[in-house]
Amino acid sequence: MALLKIKFTQQRRVHLAQGLWLLSWMAVMWGGVIFCLGVYLKTELLRRAEVMDNTEIHVVPNILMMVGLASIGTNWVASRVCQDSLDPTRFPRWKVPLLAWFAVATVLCCLLIAVVALSYALQGSLEESLKVGLRNGIRFYKDTDVPGRCFQKETIDRLQMEFRCCGNNNFKDWFEVQWVSNRYLDFTSKDVKDRIRSNVDNRYLLDGVPFSCCNPTSPRPCLRYHLTDNNAHFNYDYQSEELNLYSRGCRQALTDYYMELMNSTGPGVLSVILIQLSVLLSLRYLQTAVETAMVLEDPEGDSEGYLLEKGVKETIEDLKINALTMLKFGQVDPNAAEGSSEVADAEKDEKDAPPSPAS
Amino acid sequence: MPFMPVKFNLQKRVKLAQGLWMIYWLSVIVGILLFSLGIFFKIELRKRSEMMDNNESHLVPNLLILVGLLACGVNAFGGKVCHDSLDPIKFAKWKPMLKPFLLLCCGFNALLLLTALLCFLMQFAVYLTLAEGLKNSIKFYKDTDTPGRCFMKRTLDLTQIEFRCCGNNNFRDWFEVQWISNRYLDMSNDLVKDRVLSNVEGKYLMDSVPFSCCNPGSPRPCIQHHLTNNSAHYDYDHRIEELNIWTRGCREALFSYFSSMMTSIGVLIIGASASVDMAGLKYLTTALETMEDPENPECESDGWLLEKGVKETFGDLLAKLKTLGKTNQVVEGGDAPEAAN
């Protein structure tokens, strides 16, 4: 009992081949789009690699690029099969490669679904990686004279200005870290000595932030120092001041940015999955319809196309038996050995038999 | 004696028609490019219009948009004519329109050259508008409570950050202007009173700059205040300090941005206004017209740019212009015999 049989006339077969050819070229184009999306996502992640601790999230763009390239190749092969499908002399050579093609196409669809799932699953890992990376960035902000960390200050400043954020969770992260290098501190000054002695690690801590935290939309020129001291500035209340600095933390800003980027690739990936599935199903119908037509006496006549030759359960049983026979291929079968010796004796008897009537 | 005659056989005519068709369609693409460049330029001017006192001239982008649309139309028509040129039936209906079309192409090329010239000349206007506009922007930086100027501070801050510049000519422009609003000044404080009294207009002037002048590439946390006072900061000499704040003025930065945009658009227009397509069309139409035997497509024909030489053509044109001018005048010799009769 074949699964989902459809009758195909010669006309319908031709239409199916033409439509599938167009569909597979569209799928090639979409494969290219997926590849480009993967490349774009990877470059965006690499641009901010300095504030990320690990590269787990790079799995998503890597898979997208791989699937994009594979999809281009696979669908190009599908278009070649379509071109050969209506020519009975050239179609038979595709018989075995088509089985491999179906397997590859199914794997591609599964990978695409996996990408969508991964992009949500890896959000936690991305946040963790950003947390550690930003914490280090803020800690090494002052080390502009240490090789390997010279550009940390510029990176963090540009990041805060571009993403309109301040600090890791919020601007108070800057209060817990010494972000002014010792080279620029006057150790003879009383204020500096007081601040250094006020904590165990002898760090110069202040309730100030770098200039890159300043919010340009504030009506007031930016206040960066003595932020917790209401008396240090005229008409200033630390608790109610909102517009002076950026209130968002950079970890939140960056996570939101990357999640938005990956979500916007969602519709593209879903449409590629749909197109790939339709190419897969249409090619299966075309293959079965053309094969049954070639077997008929009249190749131009009607034939039937189906998805599976037998029902789902029977096909799975068949596959199991095939797999088991393949596994048994290496083993010697004792029954088969006896059977073959009996057959050899029977043949010998037959050979001896004919000469006797003659003589 | 035709001007620059060339002999054409069927194959040459076909090749000329095909080549000309390609050129026309490439020109359509260039027309679309000009149109989009015009829109891009218009958007950029709009974005920075606050820096230019909302006074900037939109002549060049408007002209570019118009020229781009015209280019698309004219070249698409030319392409259609070439496409039909080798089919005598279809070509017959285009024949009467060809002469006006060639004149239109001439006029269009002149317009292109005018636009290119404007692209180069209007840069001076942009420079002057920027100088005036930035001076006012810096003056109105503190007026975040005045309607119509609330966003001047934000715009100027974002411009200084984006273009990596400070002030009009340089950062000292900020020293001559009060950029902190009186709302945030404690007038009972002695320091404030000293500063306000130190100048004729009663402005609170200081040797400080806004935070948007800070250079993130400086190894040192940004020093914004008391810039000319070496003893206010540890290990600081304002004469040799280079990386602390941006040294370039915003007028120069914005001008170089706009001028490079306008120069490249001008160069593109000059490249696009080649008269190759006009010459080619003239050759093609004359070659098709002079076919001796219209029924036999294989026959040879002559093509040329001008039917007579250059001087004679000019003489004819002048004579035509003179007769056009005289149509309204009464011709005395002609009337007198009628009156006599």
TrEMBL record, chain A:
GO terms for biological process: visual perception. CDD domains: peripherin_like_LEL (cd03162). The keyword Metal-binding does not apply. It is a multi-pass membrane protein. Keywords: Membrane, Transmembrane, Transmembrane helix. Signal peptide: none annotated. This is Retinal outer segment membrane protein 1b. It comes from Cyclopterus lumpus. The gene is rom1b.
TrEMBL record, chain B:
Gene3D superfamilies: Tetraspanin (1.10.1450.10). It is a multi-pass membrane protein. It is found in: Membrane. The chain crosses the membrane at residues 20-41, 62-81, 101-130, 254-274. One of its GO terms (biological process) is cell adhesion. The keyword Glycoprotein applies. SUPFAM superfamilies: Tetraspanin. InterPro entries: Peripherin/rom-1, Peripherin/rom-1_CS, Peripherin_LEL, Tetraspanin/Peripherin, Tetraspanin_EC2_sf. GO terms for cellular component: plasma membrane. Keywords: Cell adhesion, Disulfide bond, Glycoprotein, Membrane, Transmembrane, Transmembrane helix. Belongs to the PRPH2/ROM1 family. This is Peripherin-2. It comes from Cyclopterus lumpus.
